[in-house]
Write a structure and sequence with these properties.
Elements: H1 2-10, H2 14-34, H3 44-51, H4 55-61, H5 65-74, H6 88-104, H7 106-117, H8 123-151, H9 160-178, H10 185-199
Length: 202
């Protein structure tokens, strides 16, 4: 019985090693892009060497470099928190806090800038990155704004696209122009309150 129990507890040991290898590959990909290696120069060989794995380990998980890049860059964008079900203001503040953390993270900012600057040379890849990292957030924000329009917390004639661009653009511009290096709850509230003054019903 003792031998059987020991055997049963030993079998799952391979899973953590697989997860560690995958994390090492993702981290290696992001590190190399962050070192200003453009997407054309980035190779599976270089990623494997940096991650300390064989190329076959990478190809077991991703069929090509593009798939790996999309997954790697997607890890940089944390999902927006689920709606708390309270006021639109409360949920907007929670969303802006996430935008702040991303904008203040030098690695995330650098890697995403490089990736999006390659859009002209790699339009298909840029579109896949947009769908994986940007569109889920846009959908969440749009749903929240629609909820506010339905409840009367926001203007019924609100232009969703302009409202979303204003919300995200304001926080990104402020952080970069003011040299903000750390997210703060107070800044998120200030941005949301200022914008809601223009989005609220007349």
């Amino acid at each position: 019985m003792t031998t059987t129990d020991e055997t049963q507890t030993a079998r799952p040991a391979g899973r953590p090693r697989s997860a560690r290898a995958e994390k090492a590959i993702i981290d290696a990909t992001l590190d190399l892009i962050g070192e200003n290696i453009n997407l054309a120069e980035l190779s599976i060989e270089a990623i494997a060497a940096r991650a300390g794995v064989g190329k076959t380990t990478i190809y077991r998980r991703w069929s090509n470099k593009e798939d790996l890049l999309v997954d790697a860059l997607a890890t940089l964008k944390a999902p927006l928190p689920p709606s708390r079900g309270g006021s639109v203001r409360e949920d907007l503040v929670a969303y802006v806090e996430v935008f702040q953390r991303d904008a203040c993270d030098a690695r995330k900012r650098c890697v995403m800038n490089i990736a999006m600057n390659e859009a002209e040379r790699h339009p298909r890849l840029a579109e896949r990155i947009r769908q994986a990292t940007i569109e889920p957030r846009r959908a969440a924000i749009a749903a929240l704004l629609r909820r506010g329009m339905a409840t009367g917390e926001l203007r019924a004639d609100l232009d969703l696209h302009i409202a979303m661009a204003t919300l995200i653009g304001t926080i990104m511009w402020y952080i970069r122009s003011e040299g903000v290096t750390a997210a703060s709850d107070e800044l998120a509230e200030r941005v949301v309150d200022q914008l809601l003054a223009g989005l609220a019903p007349r």
